[in-house]
Amino acid sequence: xxxxxxxxxxxxxxxxxxxxxxxxxxxxxxxxxxxxxxxxxxxxxxxxxxxxxxxxxxxxxxxxxxxxxxxxxxxxxxxxxxxxxxxxxxxxxxxxxxxxxxxxxxxxxxxxxxxxxxxxxxxxxxxxx
Length: 129
Hints:
alpha+beta; GCV_H; Biotin_lipoyl; lipoyl
């Protein structure tokens, strides 16, 4: 199966993605992760105003197969949360890079994403190329 990895995103080896737009980072999970999880039944996210720390857990995602911690690719403050996903987490699978985003975070240090993987590096890691 072939997955999509947008080139303008950066990726964590724990399958989160981050896309910067100025100092706002959009965070979610990759299409590969959604496929691995299967049917997603629960999503726990922080509140608006909460501080995320790069490398720390900020929530959980649960499927019929597993419960996985979500790790932050950046340090910053949550400015927006995709609340419809909390009520209907199956939506994540429909469009993980678009409507399936989790959080928008005002980033403290834009260099946080520099050590995240490029699309090609992430693809090589998950697909074993």
